Amino acid sequence: MTTKDDLMAGFAGESQANRKYASFSNKAAEEGFTKVATLFKAASLAEEIHARRHLQVYGIPSTVENLKAAIEGETEEFTHMYPEFVKRSQEEGNEDATRSFTYAMKAEQVHAGLYEKALSAVKSGKDLEVSKVFLCPVCGNVALESAPGACPICGVPGKKFQEITL
């Protein structure tokens, strides 16, 4: 192992802790434990700081390289990883897992296509020409310009899509 390997292992662990503690915060809040929820939220944000710092020290490549890596990762997920997960969850009769994996698989395919579009723009020296970006809060589908009437992946009404801004 090298320090670069350690940085990526730290990034992965801190990233996972960030999301896990954010979910724990939501659960504690649902159960009425607001101070515990606040503690989990603070820890979640701390883990994010750690993850981002590890990645910065590791080195973040150019936007072109980042888009290529994102396309590769998303494509791997929707062509290999999630289909295997869906198959196994179906064999085990776990409908909730099957739904979760299927939503993610379909959303990752959309993401890969959007990254391809962005890569083409960036390679020609331009930014992505889009006025608005929307996110489905249920399945993670991303839509450009306007939210659909209903999400084509999970069916949630388009009015529930969140506009994403910097």
Automatic annotation (TrEMBL):
Domain Rubredoxin-like residue range list: 131-164
Protein's recorded name: Rubrerythrin
Domain of life assignment: Archaea
Entries under PROSITE patterns matching the protein: FERRITIN_LIKE (PS50905), RUBREDOXIN_LIKE (PS50903)
InterPro entries: Ferritin-like, Ferritin-like_diiron, Ferritin-like_SF, Rbr2/Nigerythrin, Rr_diiron-bd_dom, Rubredoxin-like_dom, RUBY_RBDX
Location of the Ferritin-like diiron domain: 1-126
Gene3D superfamilies: 1.20.1260.10, 2.20.28.10
PANTHER family registered for this protein in UniProt: RUBRERYTHRIN
MF terms (GO), sorted A to Z: iron ion binding; oxidoreductase activity
Keyword Transport tagged: yes
Key words, A-Z: Electron transport, Transport
Pfam families listed in its UniProt record: Rubrerythrin (PF02915), RUBY_RBDX (PF21349)
